[in-house]
Amino acid sequence: MSAASVEQPFAHEEPVTLTTIADEIMERHPGYRVEIIGGHLLVTPSPDAPHARALTRLMRPFIAAGLADGETEVLQNVGLWLPTGGEDYAIPDLVVVDADIDDHFVENNAYDPVCFRLVLEVTSANWKDDLKTKVTAYAEAKIPVYVVVDRKHQRLHVLTDPVGSGYEKHRPHASGEIVTLPDSIGAKVTLDVTEILTAGRPKTND
């Protein structure tokens, strides 16, 4: 999911932490997602139905491959603690994590990146955050596989082999392709790019 950078929205007599501001935003705007990346607040409104539909389609192959049971779990909206700043965390749309994720709790409902095998984002209005800001953040967190469903440009991106602030391998895939994800996530998973991109497009009455 993508997000828009937001300046501090509340006036306080004393400085407050970004985490406190994030909590206030979520309290005032139920359903909004607030993340802190690189010391900046990213705020995303509730996703539209096509966004949710794409996630549902995406979960199916992961579950069918057996990743929801045993050594791994397939989850949505789990906090990922980031090394990019003292308060930084992201909330990916979909993740494949080690089954012992509860043992890796850090704080603020976020977990150590060591237990994340894959993170996946489905873009919304501000797609640049998923294709730029979060690429850097996830690479620095050493997330092995990062998948982006780019609804803006109708592409599915697979990024692997994090090095520094980027990924050594980054391949975009178009409709008509079948993508096989790296075995490192724990099972063989193939994604039908056409099916996923179609699910993420708004339906028309034509």
Shape: globular
**Rounded to an integer, what's the Rg over CA atoms?**
17 Å
Strand order of the largest sheet: 4-7-10-11-12-13
Number of helices: 4
Termini gap: 28 Å
Classify the secondary structure makeup into a structural class. alpha+beta
Helical content stands at 10-25%
Low-confidence runs: none
Label this structure with key terms.
206 residues, 15 strands, 6-stranded mixed β-sheet, 4-stranded mixed β-sheet, globular, single chain, alpha+beta
Overall description:
The structure is a single chain. By secondary structure, this protein is an alpha+beta fold. Helix content is 23%, strand content 33%. Strands 4-7-10-11-12-13 form a six-stranded mixed sheet. The protein has a four-stranded mixed sheet with strand order 6-5-9-8, with no helix packed on it. The relative contact order is 0.16.
Write the layout of secondary structure elements.
Blueprint: E1 4-6, H1 18-28, E2 33-37, E3 40-44, H2 49-64, E4 72-76, E5 79-81, E6 89-90, E7 94-98, E8 105-107, E9 110-111, E10 116-122, H3 128-140, E11 145-150, E12 155-163, E13 166-173, E14 178-180, E15 190-192, H4 193-199
Parallel strand pairs: 5-9, 10-11
Antiparallel strand pairs: 1-3, 2-3, 4-7, 5-6, 7-10, 8-9, 11-12, 12-13, 14-15
Helix pairs in contact: 2-4
Structure summary:
With 206 residues, the chain is an alpha+beta fold. The chain has helices at residues 18-28, 49-64, 128-140, 193-199; strands at residues 4-6, 33-37, 40-44, 72-76, 79-81, 89-90, 94-98, 105-107, 110-111, 116-122, 145-150, 155-163, 166-173, 178-180, 190-192.
